[in-house]
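Quick review question:
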């Protein structure tokens, strides 16, 4: 829809940016931090230097001062479960609690609202060894961890995100190491783990409301509009299939406490429905989000797939467009440009996604990730001219403003990422930040911070509340 008069970004809009603990902090084995699955993981060659990431743990004051200089109103970061409870359950680690107290206090000193993700891919390795999300014990462990977070930080943290991109963890379960090797029905195992995570999330939301009546909490999946490749009705059905399995399954449960019927029938057909115990549905219904946080990088385009047709062998669309026979087939969208990492760029898809989510759930929305990964280079004058990033974010913000004009209640925009960090899939050279971190893949250099051109641009955007883009 065309609008002649755009609504402004709301007053008190949460302009900010995001990071996650294992990608930015470093100090992965310091001050009694326990190991997480990400520390044990498959980062490009398991070298210690790599895990130093951006060494934010030792530089948080300098980093927060830079965030304040950019004018951040909010900062979305994650707490490493293993810094707080090294084994996932049991003894607390006072040094971990101290670190996040310091970080939160530093943010508040500058008037920056802390928005805390409780769990961003980094399950404690000790829990993983005991079966991870396959066992219901992890539900209790997460609820207990949530209680510790609310007790220690709830006096200052008013915005909580439960689980980052649970849908991507499930859809990329192989890559995320979720599937036990001996599994005879990996899909069923995966969706059993999904069920347990959903229960853990519902319990945390309920607990938050009872312990912290003034705080707000919500899920943080990766949501994107799914386009049919053509107007062929079969393609539209394929898009609806993928929408249900990729997106709505997660939000229908978080918001309405019920399984999406299309996703459920997909699981039934594959003998992969999770075991649901007495009381589970009540637990799912008892956790109500106050808002929906979501990450958006690109839209997805799919076509009809016949049975017997090779449509790809794993689910997921963030970087590789794949599919599943008889369900959908991922295709590339000829109308879109791609980043140098091959991710499609679709700012209008961002508006579409905002509209879709709000129309379906009518809850306030906050964007907790959106951004462009690139091989930024420091030029001969010591500057990083990342005009491509400015252009990317500008185009997405223009569409966000159109969505606001459409009536979508959007209360914040926190792109990925506040500062350069280690990418989940592609190492340190894939940079997303407004602040450059002077290191290379396997050379830590001085880890110095350099303001990129986008830093100054974003500062102006924030100061003008989005009027000057
Ligand atoms: C999201 C994750 O999936 O995408 C982040 O929440 C991740 O942790 C981001 O870094 C970008 O992906 P990548 O692989 O480019 O780092």
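Suggested answer, residue by residue:
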């Amino acid at each position: 829809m065309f609008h002649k008069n755009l609504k402004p970004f709301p007053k008190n809009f949460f302009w900010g940016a995001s990071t996650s603990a294992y990608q930015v902090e470093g100090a992965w084995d310091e001050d009694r931090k326990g190991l997480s699955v990400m520390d044990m993981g498959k980062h490009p060659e398991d070298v210690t230097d790599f895990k130093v990431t951006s060494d934010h743990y030792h530089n948080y004051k300098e980093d927060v001062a830079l965030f304040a200089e950019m004018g951040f109103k909010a900062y979305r970061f994650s707490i490493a479960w293993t810094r707080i409870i090294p084994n996932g359950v049991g003894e607390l680690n006072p040094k971990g609690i101290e670190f996040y107290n310091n970080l939160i206090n530093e943010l508040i000193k500058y008037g920056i609202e802390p928005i805390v993700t409780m769990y961003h891919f980094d399950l404690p390795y000790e829990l993983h060894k005991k079966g991870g999300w396959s066992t219901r014990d992890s539900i209790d462990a997460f609820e207990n961890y949530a209680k510790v977070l609310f007790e220690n930080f709830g006096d200052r943290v008013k915005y909580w995100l439960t689980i980052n991109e649970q849908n991507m963890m499930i859809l990329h379960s192989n890559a995320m190491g979720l599937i036990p090797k001996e599994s005879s029905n990996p899909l069923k195992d995966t969706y059993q783990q999904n069920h347990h995570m959903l229960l853990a999330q519902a319990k945390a939301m309920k607990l938050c409301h009872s312990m912290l009546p003034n705080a707000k909490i919500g899920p943080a999946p990766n949501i994107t509009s799914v386009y049919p490749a053509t107007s062929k009705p079969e393609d539209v059905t394929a898009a609806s299939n993928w929408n249900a399995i990729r997106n709505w399954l997660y939000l229908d449960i978080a918001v309405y406490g019920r399984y999406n019927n299309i996703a459920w029938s997909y699981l039934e057909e594959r003998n992969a429905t999770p075991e649901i115990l007495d009381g589970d549905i009540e637990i799912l219904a008892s956790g109500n989000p106050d808002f929906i946080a979501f990450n958006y990088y690109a839209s997805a385009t799919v076509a009809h797939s016949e049975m017997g047709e090779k449509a790809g062998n794993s689910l997921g669309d963030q970087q590789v467009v794949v599919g599943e026979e008889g369900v959908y087939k991922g295709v590339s969208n000829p109308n879109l440009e791609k980043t140098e990492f091959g991710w499609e760029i679709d700012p209008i898809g961002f508006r579409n996604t905002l509209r879709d989510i709000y129309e379906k759930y009518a809850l306030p929305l906050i964007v907790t990730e959106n951004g462009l990964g690139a091989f930024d280079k420091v030029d001969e004058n010591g500057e990083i001219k990342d005009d491509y990033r400015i252009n990317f974010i500008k185009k997405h913000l223009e569409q966000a403003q159109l969505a606001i004009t459409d009536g979508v209640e959007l209360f914040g925009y926190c792109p990925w990422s506040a500062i350069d960090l280690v990418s989940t899939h592609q190492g340190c050279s894939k940079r997303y930040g407004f602040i450059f971190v002077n290191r290379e893949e396997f050379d830590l250099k001085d880890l110095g911070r350099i303001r990129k051109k986008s830093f100054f641009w974003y500062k102006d955007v924030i100061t003008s509340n989005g009027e000057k883009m």
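Why it works: The radius of gyration is 21 Å. The pocket of 6-O-phosphono-beta-D-glucopyranose is lined by residues 20, 23, 164-165, 168, 222, 295, 369, 373, 416, 423-426, 430 (CB under 6 Å).
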